[in-house]
Amino acid sequence: MTEPEGWRLDCIGCGSTAGSELPDSACAKCGDLLEVRMIREVDSQSLFGGKGPGVWRFAEALPFPAGVAPVSLGEGGTPLTRASRFDPGLNFDLYVKNDGQNPTGSFKDRGMTVGVTRAKTLGARALVCASTGNTAASLAAYAAKAGVDALVVVPKGGVASGKLGQAFAYGARVFGVDGNFDLALSTVLDLVRKDSRLYLLNSVNPFRIEGQKLTAFEIFEQLPGVPDYIVLPVGNAGNISAIWKGFKELQSFGVTRSAPVMVGVQAEGAAPLAQAFSTGNPLEPWREPSTVASAIRIGNPVSWKKALRAVAESGGRVVTVGDGDILRARKELASKEGLLVEAASAAPLAALKKLNLPAGARVVCVATGSGLKDMADNPGEQRIEPVTDAESISKAIR
User: Fold this and answer.
1) What digits encode the pLDDT tens for the residues 17-56?
2) Residue 269 domain-assigned?
3) What is the pLDDT of residues 137-161, one digit of tens each?
4) Of 4, 227, 304, 348, which residue is most buried, by most CB within 10 angstroms?
C-alpha cells in the first residue's frame, strides 16, 4: 500500500525512514523502535473546533487519510477532575485525568483504536499482544469490533482476574507463560517475526502511541492550557513518551509555546527506568520485578529510550514509591475524591509529597486504569459491618 502524505515512520535509533512494506514494530536496519512523524500542516482552530468528544475528533493529527473508517468504541474524552480533598496539605492545584473511564477501563483504548484501525488498513489476519492485563482487555475488545482474531500472551498468575476476565469475555485466545511480562513479550516478538499474518499491538507499535498522545490534547482543552507538571505511572514506558509527543505536537502546530515537566513513577520493586534515570546509564532489565501494582510490574520496558528522552527534554524525572504508599494513596483518592483507580494509577499520587513541587503549580496525575479491574490486589480493605437495628446505622454518621 502507499502511505498517505503528511506523515512518515522514523527510527529513533539510526534515524532512517521505514517504508510501507515494513512491519510497524521495529526498524529493519537497526531493530530500534519506530515513531510517527507528522509532517503536514494542522489547523489548530479546526483541531479544537467544537466536534464531538473522543480520540477521533482529532483525526487531523493522526496518520490516516481523511475519511478513514476507524475501529472505535467511543474512547477518549475522559474527565479531568480537580482533586481538592485528596491531601489538603498540598500547596498546588491537583487534577486527575481519569482514563479508567475509557470503554474497557484503561488508557490502552486510546492507542488500540488507532492501532487496530492501522491493522485493518494493512489487512491483518489476527492481532497479538503480551500483557499484564489492560492491553489484553483492550486488544480483545477492539479485535471483536474489527472482526479479527485476538491472541494474548500473559504471565501465569500475574494478571488481575478482572482484566483477564475481560479478555475472555471479548473472545480472545489467551496463552500463559511460566514467567513474567518480559518473557511474555519476548515470546510475542518472536512469534510476529515468524508469522506475517499477525499484527503486534504492544506499545512498541508507533500507532498505539499516536492514539495515546491525544491525552495531551484533551488535557490542554480541559484544563484549559498546559499544566506545569504531568505525573504518571510507568510500566512498559510508552505512555509517558506518548503524552510528551502530544504536547510537542501542540507546540509544532502553533497551539501553545509551553510544555509540561514529565514525571514518571515506578514501584520500588519494579523500577528499572528509575534506576537508569538516577545513574545516567542505559537501562538494565530487572529479572524479578515485584509490586502489588500489577500493571507496572515490568522489568524490561521496551520503550525506555523514548521515555528517558521525554523526561530529559521536559526537564523531568523518574521516581519510585513503595507498595504501602501506593495502596494508601489509592484508598485516599477513593474515599476523599470518589475516584477508584487501579493500584498502578495511584503511584503518581503516592509520589506527590516527595516531589516537592512549587506552590501554585498546576499538576495533572494520569490515572491509567479503573480500580474495578484489580480489587483483588487490595485484600482486607473491604469490610461489611453487622446491623442490629436502624440506630446502629445512624451511629455511623460522622
Assistant:
1) 876 555 677 888 898 999 999 988 888 888 887 777 899 9
2) yes
3) 999 999 999 999 999 999 998 888 8
4) 348
Q: Between 238-252 and 214-222, two packed helices, what is the crossing angle to 10 degrees?
A: 60
Is residue 215 located within the same domain as residue 289?
yes
Residue showing cell 498522545? 213
- CATH, residue 273: 3.40.50.1100
What pLDDT band is residue 108 in, cutting at 50, 70 and 90?
A: very high
Match 510501507 to its residue by C-alpha cell: 20
Same domain, 235 and 147: no
Question: Where are the extended beta strands (E) located within the chain?
Answer: 7-11, 17-18, 34-38, 80-82, 93-98, 126-130, 149-155, 173-177, 198-200, 229-233, 261-267, 317-321, 362-367
- Taking alpha carbons only, the member of 262, 263, 308, 265 closest to residue 284 is 308
Q: Are residues 372 and 312 in the same domain?
A: yes
Predicted confidence (pLDDT) per residue in 9-23, tens digit: 999 999 998 765 556
